[in-house]
Amino acid sequence: xxxxxxxxxxxxxxxxxxxxxxxxxxxxxxxxxxxxxxxxxxxxxxxxxxxxxxxxxxxxxxxxxxx
Length: 67
Ligand SMILES: [Zn+2]
Fold this sequence. Notes:
Order of helices and strands: HEEEE
Bound molecules: zinc ion
Helix content: under 10%
Low-confidence stretches: none
Number of strands: 4
């Protein structure tokens, strides 16, 4: 990927406004806070919550109770 550093400086996660980290291998921008992954198409980040991949694991929400 060849993303504009200035662009990376100003964009944040649209879901939680967290900082985004470039994952070259997966061609995504990963949010450090909520863990969502935003796809990058033609070197343009697609910052849409609908298009984001969900957090990889341990997301808050429904789940079995500890026990
Ligand atoms: Zn986020």
